[in-house]
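Q: what sequence does this backbone want?
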């Protein structure tokens, strides 16, 4: 589960444009935590460790929301793989089903 979670998190974060510190520095020198929330998908570790423009409370709220989204995506992927496996077993002639189960057991 963790690997699926991390892979989806990384893919979603890759779609978000990164904001350099040189862009944030002038604004953060005036306002510690700007009211405008950063946009896009930001991994939890990045929010808590490397983003001075996100307060801890906002990081917790975003982490809870992102965790719900990731959990839905994880279970959707697991269900799709399970459905594909069930279809594959149903579509495979009985004489090949034993060999197919053998290969799945090895994998």
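A:
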């Amino acid at each position: 589960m963790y690997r699926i979670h991390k892979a989806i998190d990384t893919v979603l974060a890759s779609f978000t444009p990164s904001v350099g510190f040189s862009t944030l520095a002038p604004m953060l020198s005036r306002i510690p935590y700007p009211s405008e929330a950063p946009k896009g998908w930001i991994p939890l570790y990045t929010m808590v460790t490397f983003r001075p423009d996100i307060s801890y409370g906002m990081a917790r709220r975003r982490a809870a929301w992102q965790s719900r989204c990731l959990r839905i995506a994880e279970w959707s992927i697991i269900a799709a793989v399970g459905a594909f496996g069930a279809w594959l077993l149903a579509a495979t002639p009985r004489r090949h089903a034993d060999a197919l189960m053998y290969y799945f057991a090895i994998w």
